[in-house]
Amino acid sequence: MDLKGKTALVTGGSKRIGRAISIGLAKEGCNVIVHYNTSEKEAKEVEEIIKSYGVKAYTLKADLLNEKDLEQLAEKSLDIGVDILVNNASLYYKTPLKTATLKDLDNFYSIHVKAPFYLSKVLGSQMYEKKEGRIINIIDYSAILPYPDYTPYTTSKGALMTMTKAFAKEFAPYVLVNGILPGPIVPPSDLENKEIPLQKTLLKRWGGEEEVFKAVKYLIETNFTTGSFIPVEGGRLIF
Questions:
Q1: In a 3-state reduction of DSSP, which class is residue 17?
Q2: I want to staple 34 with a disulfide (CB 3.0 to 4.6 A). Which of 13, 77, 205, 214 is the partner?
């Protein structure tokens, strides 16, 4: 698929990896719908950057924990017309098993499974009718190699991985559905020792958001990859 003139919806598109994906797509001539929840200022900044590349930019607010908001996001995106869906929005916080609750699990599933499922179903069906489209899920290497104290998070990411393969079958041969497994891309703002996550990473450095965009770009432009996953984790999975 040629990116020029296409339109992409990037959930969680105003900050960190989502921001890099949104701007990267615009640089390639793609119109971008930037979804956000609370980061309105950042979303508007990204919108202006996108427009500076001579393409169309939209910002849509939605709380993905809220079903009505999710449905409205899908409807508004349908009205605009979406060729590419990047399910990037994520929730991440520590949940030691002793204190983890069903509410925690519901929260992670709402963001990592329920929202991508609904958006993929609705927007993917439109793509299928047009006989062309791309759905890319930003997952996490922990879907394969879980780490302690984040079991609800990694469980939901594992479900997203399975869902990626299921949708690839549902929408074949017209809509290609793939996933990306990021590792140490950018350190969380509250991380005290930024070297600890790198100790079991072969390349011993943080990758940077641009590395994820490179994988996104490949999965949009390829015409022969579906139901697959690209690790972008510096060798963490084989350490």
A1: helix
A2: 13
Q: Which residue range(s) make up the domain with 52?
A: 7-238
Strand partners, 177: 135
Number of continuous H segments (helices) and E segments (strands) in the chain: 7, 7
Tens of pLDDT, residues 43-82: 999 999 999 999 999 999 999 999 999 999 999 999 999 9
State how far the alpha carbon of 119 is from the alpha carbons of 10, 87, 94, 145, 184, in Å: 11, 8, 27, 27, 27
CATH code of 183's domain: 3.40.50.720
Nearby residues of 35 by Cβ (< 8 Å), 6 or more positions away: 9, 10, 11, 12, 13, 14, 59, 60, 61, 62, 73, 89
Alpha-carbon torsion angle 114, 90, 94, 113, nearest 10: 20
